[in-house]
Specification:
Blueprint (H helix, E strand, L loop, with lengths): L2 H10 E6 L5 E5 L4 E2 L2 E2 L1 E4 L11 H7 L58
Antiparallel strand pairs: 1-2, 2-5, 3-4
Amino acid sequence: MDVGLRVFTWLNGKLVGDDPYGNRYFVHKANRKRDGREMRWVVYNGLAEASKVPPDWHAWLHHSTDALPNEQQVPRFDWQKDHMPNLTGTRYAYRPPGHVLQGGKRERATGDYEPWTPA
């Protein structure tokens, strides 16, 4: 976290909750508004990566809901997966068959592909 955000949060922030990943969520303690809406922000645990914010907190941050995620019971469906941060650029990133880091070989086209040639 940079020094400016740390000082601003210390002076103006009121902690309203945190998520399982250690991110902390704040509102302006003087009820200051920006564009007519309550100021809300997140202080990330570790690297500031927006994909580390779970969907329920994302909805709260973006004023889709005013209820705090830890105050409401959001139904969880069987088809929902657990939150995963963006893994692009890490060794856990998805690399399909044929990717350079997966050997660079892919299966041949099935014959339904015709390359374009200029007339």
